[in-house]
């Protein structure tokens, strides 16, 4: 099912691109553009004609091939990526939109509807929502009700299923757009009067947070830049989806620093069972690129930061933390730390993950407790 949906998405995208470019397309255009046999291209055109996504502009006449056109010039999807990571009985839903306005709309209404959603953050075009597994009734309708909300999130084997209720524009997104987003395996729809109810199926991915520190030297380099480079390197691996890159300010009074005493962390979603491969790839990359022999890395699976780990991050901002403290804290909270003196800051970056930029970048900011 996943491969069929992906192929449909790719063929429809190609057909729409040809339609926008030349006003039509032929079987040969799709054959060459997709790199498939002619019979496969024709089969997909016929299928999408039957679905109502493509129309025949001109029938074949002698040596002149039939010409087709994608029916809508609207974007195939306002949803760029939808994927999910799981940590115990909680799920983080990542929904990247094509527009910050679309992201703001969904973030507002999902937060207003509540249901199983516990918290919602928006960073540009990326919506991050934390939900508990289960179902809860939500009020969906016209103003002042929410136009869209998540009524349930359940795990089914290797998948996460979101149960969405919506009306109006969001209903169009659910019925016509979400299935085209990267990461979506299947969308099922049911209508009840003006309300559209649907389920969106995605993989239950592992959430991996990687903290990095002490990679630069007085002669050059920057930890934030190397962390970003690592994120770009890892996203080339099959199945790895990038989530975020952050800079974290620590205690500015620490003497062993090259500048302002900042560290970084990145977040990625990875297929279950690939942790060791990704950790090893990350270590090789950092060892090759770091300008300091004291570089350190911290690897945490899952997005939940327990109170004890958060307290370590707070101490790294307000006091002095030893390597021994870092190693002991990491062991308690099942965070793997590797490297030199930099493990102190790398673990602090992981400990402060999930906080807003306004707190991460202000060393004197008060650290709030973990939300869950």
Short description:
Helices cover 34% and strands 31% of the residues. By secondary structure, the protein is an alpha+beta fold. α1 crosses α2, α2 (27-34) packs across α3 and α9 crosses α10 (343-351).
How would you sum up this structure, described in words?
By secondary structure, this protein is α+β, with helices and mostly antiparallel strands. The protein is built from 11 helices and 15 strands. The protein has helices at 2-22, 27-34, 38-51, 100-113, 169-177, 223-234, 275-289, 307-318, 323-332, 343-351, 357-360; strands at 54-58, 67-70, 79-87, 90-97, 117-123, 126-132, 134-135, 148-156, 159-166, 184-192, 195-213, 241-249, 262-270, 296-301, 336-339. Helix 1 crosses helix 2 and helix 8 packs across helix 10 (343-351). The longest helix has 21 residues, at 2-22. The relative contact order is 0.10.
Strand tally is 15
Count up the domains.
3
Which range does the strand content fall in? 25-35%
Structural class: alpha+beta
The succession of helices and strands, N to C, reads HHHEEEEHEEEEEHEEHEEHEHHEHH
Q: Write the CATH fold name of the largest domain.
A: Alpha-Beta Plaits
